[in-house]
Design a protein that fits this description.
CATH superfamily of the largest domain: Spore Coat Polysaccharide Biosynthesis Protein SpsA, Chain A
InterPro entries: ADP-Glc_PPase, ADP_Glu_pyroP_CS, GlgC_bac, GlmU/GlgC-like_hexapep, NTP_transferase_dom, Nucleotide-diphossugar_trans, Trimer_LpxA-like_sf
Distance between the termini: 66 Å
Low-confidence stretches: 1-5
Pathway: Glycan biosynthesis; glycogen biosynthesis
Mean pLDDT: 94
Protein name: Glucose-1-phosphate adenylyltransferase
Strand content: 25-35%
Largest sheet: 9 strands, mixed
Catalytic activity: alpha-D-glucose 1-phosphate + ATP + H(+) = ADP-alpha-D-glucose + diphosphate
Helix content: 10-25%
Number of strands: 29
Organism: Gemmatimonas phototrophica
């Protein structure tokens, strides 16, 4: 690979984040917000990871396409990502679906969400486009992917994960040759092709693509007038380039960012209640898979001003404490016991409550004597005093949403129905 000065290519690139999806497998967690706006890790939102990767990689032009129930997401972006300045040749554009090309047409696919804003993109004159999904948790240096794209003379470079072959049936899978040139793209194949030299593993698409902007613009304009397309990168554009151009796979292991304490190339799709709970609770481990304390690759977000967390009461049987847990600013643990849990900002836990494996979103209030085990509690929920969740599967399933692995999702409408 040709050596490049650090950040050379990223300075000439624009990151375009596709953040319009609902994330229906998160059920009620996305009733009021898009999946990229879902809270994660105590302070951040899911979209902050893709955006932080772009900033930390040296990219200073960013666009975010929104569609489904975008208010929460747009408000977060306005509050937390307004530091990019046009006078420094930086830009941050929030691009809601707004019928820009037709009075009846919203974003009709991932490719269409870029095509409808092509005039805005071209006005900035970026040489390269980095297309990103806004709903995954990972740390990645896009500069390295840009370097590979240029060095190999690719028309498109696709970010890929190495996964066990039979676990790749739910992904778009790249069939590559010995030089990682993509020879076939298969959408959710029943029998995924293995990697040359490693047949038990397959290459799954991460939904990350690098293009030269001029090539992408031509590709999008061609796709826009094709009556047989679904206007989707994975279903339409990438297979077209595989068949008619040069498509190359970029392995996540070549550009993932790992702190000294991280042993794996961490990437998570937290698109189910179980996956969401597991990824958040893993952060409470002594050595979690994702290091949120890495100062060399910070995860930027909206920094809400809150007082410090507080733990009060030290009486026998009424001692406020938390073990193996993450407690955010503004939280008060008042005479309650908290184990292996994660609390977002401004959570209140009242006396004699007991939490184990709880993920509590902002502004949750847990009443006296409540016992919560393996739960996800939506923002602003008021848990009644004495409520017990996580100990009786049949009762949990009747009152709340219980996952296949026994994680219970609690929302305020579910609580309100208890009193009817």
């Amino acid at each position: 690979m040709t050596p490049y000065t650090r950040g050379t290519l990223s300075r000439h690139a624009m990151a375009y984040v596709l953040a319009g999806g609902r994330g229906s497998r998160l059920y009620e967690l996305t009733d009021r917000r898009a999946k990229p706006a879902v809270y994660f890790g105590g302070k951040t939102r899911i979209i902050d990871f893709a955006l932080s990767n772009a900033i930390n990689s040296g990219i200073r032009r960013i666009g975010v396409a929104t569609q489904y129930k975008a208010h929460s997401l747009i408000r977060h972006l306005q509050r937390g990502w307004n530091f990019l300045r046009p006078e420094r040749n930086e830009s941050f554009d929030i691009l809601p679906a707004s019928q820009r090309v037709s009075e009846t047409q919203w974003y009709e696919g991932t490719a269409d969400a870029v095509y409808q804003n092509l005039d805005i993109i071209e006005a900035y004159h970026p040489e390269y486009m980095v297309i990103l999904a806004g709903d995954h948790i990972y740390k990645m240096d896009y500069e390295l992917m840009l370097q590979q794209h240029v060095a190999q003379g690719a028309d498109v470079t696709v970010g890929v994960l190495e996964v066990p072959r039979m676990e790749a049936t739910g992904f778009g899978v790249m069939h590559v040759d010995e030089h990682d040139r993509i020879v076939h793209f298969l959408e959710k194949p029943a029998d995924p092709p293995g990697i040359p030299g490693n047949p038990d593993m397959a290459l799954a698409s991460m939904g990350i693509y690098v293009f030269k902007t001029s090539f992408l613009a031509d590709l999008l304009r061609r796709d826009a007038v094709d009556p047989h397309t679904t206007h989707d990168f994975g279903k339409d554009l990438i297979p077209y380039v595989v068949a008619n151009g040069k498509a190359v796979a970029h392995r996540f292991s070549d550009s993932c960012v790992k702190a000294s304490r991280e042993s794996e190339a961490y990437w998570r799709d937290v698109g189910t209640i179980d996956a969401y709970w597991e990824a958040n609770i893993d952060l409470t481990s002594v050595l979690p898979g994702l290091d949120m304390y890495d100062h060399d690759w910070p995860i930027w977000t909206y920094g809400e001003i809150t007082p410090p967390a507080k733990f009060v009461h030290a009486e026998e049987g009424r001692r406020g404490f938390a073990l193996d847990s993450l407690i955010s600013g503004g939280c008060i643990v008042s005479g309650a016991a908290v184990f292996r849990s994660l609390m977002f900002t401004n959570v209140r836990i009242h006396s004699y409550a007991h939490l184990d494996g709880a993920v509590l979103q902002p502004d949750v209030d847990v009443g006296r004597g409540a016992r919560l085990t393996n739960v996800v509690v939506d923002r602003g929920v008021r848990i009644p005093p004495g409520l017990i969740v996580g100990e009786d599967p049949a009762l949990d399933g009747a009152r709340f949403r219980r996952s296949d692995k026994g994680v219970v999702l609690i929302t305020q409408p579910m609580i309100d129905r208890l009193s009817l």
